[in-house]
Design brief:
By secondary structure, this protein is an alpha/beta fold. It contains 7 helices and 11 strands. The strands form 3 sheets. A 5-stranded parallel sheet has the order 4-5-9-10-11. A 3-stranded antiparallel sheet has the order 1-2-3, with no helix packed on it. The longest helix is centred in the C-terminal third of the chain and has 21 residues. The chain is globular and about 45 Å long.
Length: 213
């Protein structure tokens, strides 16, 4: 649940509190990146001592290594990395911008190549949600179609439409009550597409939305 504390009427800037299963996150927030369930150069204890309220990990990378089953056997992502604050998991969609990882994108999802052993893995909207539910993060994110910054209007239009379709599929697949599900606004640098994406996603029952630029 998101609790709005203050909103500037002139700029629209907001201050609030995001309530998660592992504590409150004051927003706007800085989240250290723990791609592989570890923040480089800092231990989980040091993060806690620094007052870190939330971190973000990469669901696709964790799915590859160490694997969902190992994290589950450890008691979930929080116990695996000994961090009791809020944990966000990115869908892995941002990996579409990496030519070394992306193999193919279709209406069904994306095929990625593992950076560890070059094996290929299909991530559908449903698979993405399944992985994040099993990891046990506090906030999961839907798989979005993330085109390069330099993409032409028609390509971005297609990715925006696909992002909305995937979001609806992800919402239907999500069944973990103590995990918030975030959608992601697409549309590149085109205001009309960003507006269209936001309106379509707001019409769905998501906790919050994030913006990819």
């Amino acid at each position: 649940m998101f609790e709005l504390s203050c909103k500037d009427e002139e700029t629209g800037a907001r201050v609030g509190k995001l309530h998660t299963a592992h504590g409150i996150v004051d927003t706007p927030a800085f989240m250290p990146v723990a791609t592989k369930a570890s923040v480089k150069t800092l231990s989980s204890g040091e993060l806690i001592n620094l007052g870190t309220q939330a971190i973000i990990s990469n669901a696709f990378i964790l799915y590859l290594r160490p694997g969902v089953e190992i994290v589950k056997r450890a008691g979930g992502l929080h116990r695996f990395m000994n961090f009791n604050g809020a944990i966000f998991t990115d869908s892995g969609g941002f990996q579409m911008l990496n030519d070394k990882l992306l193999v193919q994108v279709s209406k069904k999802g994306a095929v990625f190549q593992s950076p560890f052993d070059s094996t290929k893995h299909r991530f559908t909207p449903e698979k993405c949600i399944e992985v994040q539910m099993e990891l046990g993060s506090d906030v999961a994110m839907v798989l979005d179609d993330c085109p390069p910054f330099t993409s032409e209007y028609e390509q971005v239009k297609r990715s925006t439409q696909r992002t909305g379709e995937w979001a609806r599929i992800a919402l239907e697949a999500h069944r973990k009550e103590d995990q918030a599900l975030f959608c992601i606004i697409q549309g590149g640098t085109f205001p009309d597409l960003r507006k269209r994406s936001a309106e379509a996603l707001v019409a769905m029952d998501f906790e919050l939305s994030l913006i990819h630029i």
